[in-house]
Amino acid sequence: MRKSFWSLVIVTGLLLSLAGCGGAPAKKAEEKILRVGTEATFPPFEFQDEKSKEYTGFDMDLIRAVGKQMGYNVKIDNLGFDGLIPALEAGNIDVIASGMTITEERAKKVAFTKPYYDSGLTIVVGKDNNQIKDFPDLEGKRLAVQIGTTGAQEAARVKGAKVREFNSVGDTFLELKNGGVDAVVNDRPVNAYFLTTGGGIAYAKEVGKPRNAESYGFAVSKKNEKMAAEMDKALEALKKSGEYEKIYSKWFGKTVN
Predict the structure, then answer these.
(1) What strand order describes the sheet that includes 162-166?
(2) What are phi and psi of 158, to 5 degrees?
(3) Could you say which residues of the chain have pLDDT below 70?
(4) Under 8 Å CB-to-CB from 149, ≥6 apart: which residues?
């Protein structure tokens, strides 16, 4: 009788054990995805690496570091620059990381983080061009700009200028090289990058003093301003740890102040 009792106990235990093994698996912690929109033709801030096909650049490294600091896995989508804010408003992306200048007009539509980079506009002309030395000399000239940028806005204010808008920075330099325009107006670090690494130094040069000090910021939906505050905290943490300076030095060859 005792033997039968203990046999029953053992069998029951095995059945319960098997039932436990066949039960629903424990749920994994849900992965947090940060959907980032960029326009990947803006070196050295964002562009697609020819070999790896990965999106790379200062903005890309920084937003990945910010996402990691916040506990997110960053997913990057390449969109047209003029389609980034509409995509954010439609909820198709969570953040814009695309060398976007903080302006009053844009701030009416999106919520910006604190600035993470300070820039300015400069002019690039052909190497043999001695007529254009600064912004006043652009009057009546043919100008190439990237659509939707502050460079395009500044060029539109130039008296008598014939402004041609292009989808990418590379296209503006190609048009300058081919003689289709007299000058390119764009952000200083972008112009410098193309001159030094894109072969532009062979046929072009930068002239004049930077105009319109600009600050870049990450943009989020006005419905999600809490995220902007969280991103500010993450950026501050990266600066304190030295990670921001490391990323900055990688792309601009010097340390930040």
Answers:
(1) 162-166, 142-146, 183-187, 117-126, 204-216
(2) -75, 125
(3) 1-29, 198, 253-257
(4) 81, 101, 186, 187
What is the per-residue pLDDT across 47-63, written as a single tens digit (0 to 9) for each?
A: 999 899 999 999 999 99
Q: For residue 151, which of 122, 105, 186 has the smallest C-alpha distance?
A: 186
Which pairs from 46-50 meet CB under 8 Å and 24+ separation? 46/97, 46/98, 46/99, 48/78
Angle between helices 58-70 and 243-252 (to 10 degrees): 170
Rounded to two decimals, the pTM is: 0.67
CA separation for the pair 174, 165 (Å, rounded): 13
DSSP summary character for residue 101: B
**Residue 90 CA: distances (Å) to CA of 85, 221, 223:** 9, 9, 11
* Predicted pLDDT of residue 7: 44
Whether 93 contacts 86, CB under 8 Å: no
For 242, phi then psi, to 5°, come to: 90, -5
Q: What is the pLDDT of residue 161?
A: 98
Residue 9, classed as helix, strand or coil, is helix
**81: CB partners within 8 A, 6+ apart:** 39, 42, 98, 146, 147, 148, 149
